[in-house]
# Entry
Amino acid sequence: MQKYRIELKWAIIFMATTLVWMILEKLVGLHSTHIDKHMIYTNFFAIPAIIIYVLALLDKRKNFYGGQMTYQQGFLTGLWITLIVTIFSPLTQYIISTVITPDYFSTVIDYVITHDMMTEEAARKQFNLKNYIIQATIGALIMGVVTSAIVAIFTRKRANP
# Structure
């Protein structure tokens, strides 16, 4: 388990950052007053997400691989972080939806119905805990793999001759 201590640490940091981001979204009104802007601004979470992966891979390179790391080692490090985040995604989404912003689903459903964007039936099918848990889990896996693949390119480092 010591071998994956760095990955576990950064996965926990990632999940904590996700929860803090959702608290901030709620505080600035993206889950209520400014719900019309939520779809735009929530995508900015990609910035801290990528930074976390970069810092995680640099941490692994420095503190586990002695300052050198191949693309494969970096990619596998990212995959382990992704696996942990993906496994805990349902719990993270549950906390977001029941503790941080329990009114989000009813608010977004009201918004899309009021603005003739969806029927009530379609809105209720899309905006619910079960669907969001599925989306969060699949999204964590896909985005984690892609981010790991890209970040590993920039964090690899060969030994100096």
The chain has one domain: 2-155. The chain has a mean pLDDT of 96. The first helix runs from residue 5 to 27.
